[in-house]
Design goal:
The protein is α+β, with helices and mostly antiparallel strands and 227 residues long. The strands form 2 sheets. Strands 1-8-3-4 form a 4-stranded antiparallel β-sheet, with helices on one face. Helix 2 packs across helix 3 and helix 3 runs antiparallel to helix 4. The radius of gyration is 23 Å and the shape is globular.
Length: 227
């Protein structure tokens, strides 16, 4: 906020407006450091449950049961998933059925009538007052400042208070800055590269069990044993 208000044309920008633009920018860029990963247990009644209020994106959903280990759910491709017709073929008693879900608004609709599911999801990182936290990255900060500046200058341009050239210069600066920020924030670390390398060089690829168990061993090293 201090950096923004150093500009003469941005001295009167309201704090609430800056917060709104910051949240919009975080969602638009969508880089991993902008979010925190969380899990939440959701009770299911009548095939539906309430999703967390801070949810931005679902990573994976699994069914919890005291009778067996958690089982990952698949996003439903059923055209009649939202139908009121009895969904018993997808219950716990049917061992051959997959557990599925769909999301509409802030509700999750599952193929189980009653139970407990756990959702792994991403949300925007906030402080104790609910304001968004900004990643400690100079490229990201610069791009965010230029995004706010661009949005504010667009309003001023519509009001005839700045020239088209000033707006174009800001648009060009923002375009370059956001590309640099995105590149910096998606660059994997050495440890992340090791996990990626192992995922791409698996000896025995498994397309079903990995999803079922939440990809817990996706980056584990495999060894060939010769007898």
């Amino acid at each position: 906020m201090d950096r923004l208000t150093r500009h003469p044309m941005l001295r009167d920008i309201p704090f609430e407006t800056v917060v709104d633009y910051a949240v919009d920018f975080i969602r638009l860029v969508g880089t991993p450091p902008s979010f925190v990963e969380k899990t939440a247990k959701i009770g299911i009644e009548n095939y539906r449950g309430q999703l967390p209020c801070d949810l931005y994106e679902i990573i994976q959903v699994r069914v919890l049961s005291p009778m067996h280990e958690p089982i990952a759910m698949r996003y439903s491709t059923d055209s009649f998933h939202m139908s009121d017709v009895d969904k018993r073929p997808f219950g716990f008693h049917n061992k051959g059925a997959e557990f599925t879900y769909k999301v509409q608004g802030k509700c999750i609709f599952t193929s189980i009538n009653k139970g407990l599911v756990e959702v792994a999801y991403r949300s925007i990182a906030v402080d104790e007052d609910g304001y968004p936290l900004i990643p400690d990255n100079s490229s990201f900060s610069k791009a965010l400042q230029l995004y706010i500046k661009l949005q504010w200058f667009t309003v001023l341009f519509d009001l005839g208070k700045i020239s088209p050239q000033v707006l174009r210069n800001t648009q060009q600066e923002y375009g370059l800055a956001v590309q640099q920020a995105h590149t910096d924030l998606i660059r994997p670390s050495i440890d992340q590269m090791e996990a990626i390398s192992r995922m791409w060089n698996k000896l025995l690829p498994d397309t079903t069990l990995d999803h079922r168990h939440g990809y817990i061993n996706e980056g584990s090293q495999e060894r060939m044993v010769i007898h």
